[in-house]
Design a protein that fits this description.
Number of strands: 9
Strand content: 25-35%
Number of domains: 1
Distance between the termini: 19 Å
Order of helices and strands: EEEEEEHEHHHEEH
Structural class: alpha+beta
Length: 200
């Protein structure tokens, strides 16, 4: 269970309507990206629901710079394995939060289901979606059409399972070092990401 760094040209080739969970850092932090100079970045942890009934999870350390196609520049990490089953969602989320908080980011949950049009657009613009998806809106659609679980029904990260409730702080961020249901994040995985941030 880990997150691997994707090539710098990588984009998220999923529709924004599939984004069912988003944690975003309250702060920016200066980190090393590749062999270049230190840069200010903001962290995001994204969870996408698929029509197969599992999740795809990403960590993005995004800068204020954008590529020629308008996609934010930064470092994108994806869960390994790529498809995360429902029962493994909480441990993966805990690991992702531990990874970014180990780099000095203070995370909070974005309540996507409460965002209106312009706010949804702003969310999409700040994440490395593939160009063809960037202008797509996060308008709610019937679950039968989108293949996305209805808000308030599991498996949906908006509604934390009973074991996870109480472990969030600041509108939904995980307490550092703790995980829903008592899972302990993999220390080696956290150290692995730290090395990637300086060697990638």
């Amino acid at each position: 269970m880990q997150f691997r760094a994707l090539p710098t040209s990588a984009r998220i080739d999923l529709h924004p309507r599939q984004l069912v969970g988003l944690l975003r850092s309250l702060n920016q932090n200066r980190i090393a990206m590749g062999h270049g100079p230190m840069q200010m970045a903001r962290a995001s942890v994204m969870t996408f629901y698929t029509t197969h009934g599992d999740y795809h999870m990403f960590v993005f350390l995004g800068t204020d710079q954008v590529a020629d196609d308008g996609v934010p520049l930064g470092m994108l990490f994806q869960s390994v394995p790529e498809s995360v089953p429902v029962h493994a969602y909480e441990p993966f989320l805990a690991l992702a939060v531990e990874l970014v908080e180990s780099q000095g980011f203070d995370m909070e949950r974005v309540e996507l289901q409460h965002l209106e049009g312009p706010e949804r657009d702003q969310v999409v613009e700040g994440l490395p979606f593939a160009v063809e998806h960037r202008k797509a809106l996060l308008k709610p659609v019937p679950a039968a059409q989108a293949g996305v679980p209805v808000v308030g029904q599991r498996p949906n990260p908006f509604e934390s399972p009973p074991a996870a409730r109480g472990s969030f702080r600041r509108a939904g961020a995980l307490t550092p070092g703790k995980a829903p249901g008592g899972h302990v994040p993999d220390t080696e995985a956290v150290e692995h990401l730290s090395r990637l941030l300086t060697l990638f």
